[in-house]
Every structure is written in C-alpha cells, then in structure tokens.
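Subgroup meeting minutes
Present: P.N., E.W., G.H.
Scribe: E.W.

1. P.N. recapped why we're keeping a running log of single-chain structure predictions: easier to compare across weeks, and new members can see raw inputs and outputs side by side.
2. G.H. added today's entry (331 aa).
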Amino acid sequence: MSIDKNKVYSLGLGFVTSKVLFLAAKLNLDHYLSDKPVSIVSLAEKLNFDQEAFKRFLRILDAYELIKMDEKFVSKTVYTNQLQDLKTPHLTKNYRAFDQLEYTLQTHKPCWDKEYGQAFYPSLGKEELTQFADWCRKSGDDWLLGVFALYDFSKFKKLVDVGGGQGHFLAEVLSRNTHQEGILLDQPEVVAGAKEVLAHKNCLNRVSIIGGDFFKQVPDTGDCYLLCRVLLNWNDEKAVSILNSCYHSMSDKTKLLVIDFILPDKSHPHYLRTALSDLNLLGLIDSKNRNKTEWRYLVEQSRLKLNKIIISDSSLQPEPFAPIVILECTK
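Output recorded in log:
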C-alpha cells in the first residue's frame, strides 16, 4: 500500500481553504459574477485588491469548482451561490470560537462559551435567532424530504410540532395530508414568520401558532408530537427534559416522533461529514450527533417507551447529509 507522505500537511492547510471561503462570502463575490465571463482585472479594481494577489486567491475557489476562471476571466458555476450559506452570523462567530477547541477537550464545555463569555442561544439577539432558525431550515430542506419515504404520517389527525421553527416541516406534512390539523410551538420571535410559510403551503387555516417555551409546557391536544431536528441542538440532560415535557402532555394513545440525524458507522459514505458536524455541535452548544446506542439511551433516560427505530439507507439523502433516524415513542 502506498503512503501519502504529505497527507497530514495537506489536511493542515485546510485552514487556508476555510479562510478563502469565508472571505469570498463576506465579499459577496457571487453578486459580482454571472454566467458570462467577468474580467479579473476589473473585478480586482472594484474590490480594491492587488490583481496578482487576487488571482491567486481565486485559484483556490476555482480548484473547488466554486468559480470558473482562466488567466483573464472568471464566471459562476452551479456552486457559486452557495457561498451565501456561510454568511449566517453564527457560522462566522463559530469559526473564531474554535480557537478555543483545546479548552473544550479539557472541560467538555463549548468553545463558544469560552470565546464569548455566554452560551450560544442566550447570546443571540432576536434577528440572529431568526437567521439561525432560517439557516437550520435551509440546511435541511432536501434532507427532510427523505423522511416521507420512511414514515406514514397520514394516520394522525392533529400534529404538534415542538420546536418547529417557522413551520416548514409541519407545512410539508399537512400539505400531503389535507385532513390533518397542526400546532406549531417555538419561541415567539421564531414563529413570528410562520404565517407566510404555512400560507405558502395552503395550510395556515389548519394550524395554531404558539409562541412559548417547550421546556415549560407543550400543548396537550395532539395525537402525534414531532421533534424534528430539535434534540441534536441540546445535550443529553436538556434533551431528556424536552422529551419529558412532551410526555406530560401526551395521552396513552398518542405518539412522539423524534426525527433527526444519526451518526453512522465508519463505512458509511457520510461518516466524515457527520463526525465533523458532531464536533462542531460540541464546540457550539455541547450537543452531539448521536449513534443508535446513544439514541436508545436518551429515550431510556426519559419516561417514554421506545417502540421502534427507523434508519434510512444512504440512497435516501443527498450529499453530504447524515442518515435519517426516526424514533417512535409512546407513553
């Protein structure tokens, strides 16, 4: 077996790639480009950059197919607009926070807390919290479609989407099942934008929107409770508290569905991406991408009973997402 003698060095230079990507996003580089070639010289002048240095900067983006360039011109590719995904404030701040990674490994406390002096969620203003919720939604749109290949939601009459953001997933479920009603619960500043989302899917008249705290109280009128990509944002202690909050509102006939990522084994094609996300969750909010054993343990620590675990295969989600897990729980 041949050995790549420069493997570690090449990986170590990844910080250069990250710096290039975040700067390109900060510059709104995608706004300056189109499908038609743009002069590198004129673009450098607009940005007040040295032409030769700027060309060397663009080479990195070109190598990753984020732009297309030759010696004189640069243009967009199908990936250029994705640079905007890096402009979410929490990502920019988290990039800086990871300077404290050694602290996290020593204490099991988030890098974010050490860098900024307070926990992630309390540190976000109303606008930042809304932007974070929107980023969570955008980053999961394609991923969530695979859920409907795994589970039949049509058997329920009233769904309570706990921590459901602006209602994108609930709207998707209700649009496929016109006999259903729903309740959307999340923080007031988050659900403020829910009406537009629900109206777009023609289900606003079937949803009650509640601004509240799911740690304190969950509506008790549903026959199905949804926790969709919620528990990955909380450590085990907080996650169990959320599960128990749902438990108190459930009857013996209702079900709770936890829909989330699952950390696959090393042979899975998305293992590295999920492992990176897992470490990021630790550094950001002391949470994790849980494996099958850890998901079982989490439910066992609550008052709920685990009926079954459903896990997607790699064909059901697009790159680079982790597999989907659905935990069906009862009281």
